[in-house]
Amino acid sequence: VVRAWSVIVHGGAKTIRPERQIHNRTGCETAAAAAQAVLEGGGSAIDAVEAAILAMEDDPTFNAGYGSVQNADGDIEMDAALMSGVDLSLGAIAAIRGVRHPISVAKALLQDKAVLLVGDGAARYAAEIGAELRADSPPAVPSDEACNTVGCVALDNAGRLAAGTSTGGLNGVRAGRVGDSPIPGCGLYAEDALGGVSFSGDGESILRLALAARIMGDLAALDVQAAVDAAIAQMGRVGGEAGCIALDPRGNAAFAHNSEHFAVGTADPEQGVRTFLNQKEFLDG
Ligand code: GLY
Question: Residue 185 — left, alpha, or beta (φ > 0 → left; ψ -120 to 50 → alpha)?
Answer without folding.
Answer: left
